[in-house]
Amino acid sequence: MKTKKALAALGITSVLFGSVLTGCGNSETTAAKDGKSGAEDGEKVEVTLAGWGGNPSEQKLLQQTLDGFEAKYPNIDVKLEVISDQYMDVIKTRLIGGKGPDVFYLDAFEAPGLIETGVVEPLDEYVTDDFDVSDFEKPLLEAFRVDGKTYGFPKDYSTLALFYNKKLLQEAGVEVPKTWDELREASKKLTKDGVYGFGAAPELARTFYIAQAGGGDVVKNNKANFASPEVIKALQPIVDQHNIDKTSAEPKEVGATWGGEMFGQGKAAMVIEGNWAIPFLADTFPNVEYGTAELPAINGEKSTMAYTVAYVMNAASQKKEAAWELLSYLTGKEGMETWTSKGYALPTRQSVAAKLGYDKDALRGPIVAGAKYATVWAGGPNLPIIMNNFNNQFMSAFLGKSSLDKALKEAQEQANSEIKQK
């Protein structure tokens, strides 16, 4: 627990958490390090695992993974709790009431804000050499480290890659662009007959890495900094491509809900999406012939975004030994291989990605390659506020209703005003 303001941001008081955290002693940590499950003389222990829902195939894979865990640890039963709506709100409310799950999902985007309240257990003391921390893709692991402590191990991820329609590029005589300048020129040749060269996603979660490519910082000292000259200069080409070149569009402008749908409908020759688009296109638009590539370089440097989720432990759990056994299995090589075996999710461990062949897969290979240099979608406890204000005003500039510098200055002032009032 760090500040009353941080706790207040979650609706939590220090008094409440003082009672919630009572009883979390060193003996539990020692037992976990000794490899004990938390059950004595074969007594069954039940640990709760909470996460949001997935599609039926993903839920089946998760259950298969949990079955494998329970077979290996017969004295531990796992109670899976699927929170379908308002996941973070529900988790925070349960943590306040002392009824939080033992292990739960935590998105890197939300991690800093929750970690600073003290409700997430540091995991470093539980880790043994055979867990092989060095096997994780480093940027993904670093997203859950604060002040030198590790609060979660990433269970899966996706970076962004360039999805391109092979037929449209061939007909236009266009090579797959390797730089952003090439992408902009290619888009001009590809925009015709109701098809845009590029399907844009004008939001911070997709443009964060571009915004910082010129040396600027979107977030600085936990405050919004996206109105800096470096960030504006980096983002201006996105606005200009839409408003001057008229070779890009966002999904809603063509009646689509997101980039994958826009691409599948043939309304954009190129889009930037993640691993989630591959099963979607296979199921919904199986006749589209497409390829993927690492994102075009910016200023000669490779860059992309990464989105990742970790398993974390409730600091108030009374079953820390068993909770660690579960967490370490799910993020270990055996459990991760089962969970990611069908490609719906990508393994955060390099060895598992290689064993399953994803690093050499024609479609997933470029997505996996980006993990080593990706910018993770995380940026301190105030990123949610910063994101909301950025998105509101950046869209205005993207649609030509305001200049980019004016829009971002207004958004930055509002964001920092809200941060100050926290």
Automatic annotation (TrEMBL):
Give the protein name, as stated in the record. Answer: ABC transporter substrate-binding protein
Tell me which family the UniProt entry assigns to this protein. Answer: Belongs to the bacterial solute-binding protein 1 family.
The protein's matches in PROSITE patterns, at most eight in alphabetical order, are given as: PROKAR_LIPOPROTEIN (PS51257)
State the source organism's domain of life: Bacteria
Which keywords accompany this UniProt record? Signal, Transport
Give the Pfam families listed for this entry.
SBP_bac_1
Entries under PANTHER family matching the protein:
MALTOSE-BINDING PERIPLASMIC PROTEIN, MALTOSE_MALTODEXTRIN-BINDING PERIPLASMIC PROTEIN
The source organism is Ectobacillus funiculus
Please verify whether the record's keywords include NAD.
no
Show the Gene3D superfamilies listed in the entry: Periplasmic binding protein-like II
Q: Transport: present as a keyword of the record?
A: yes
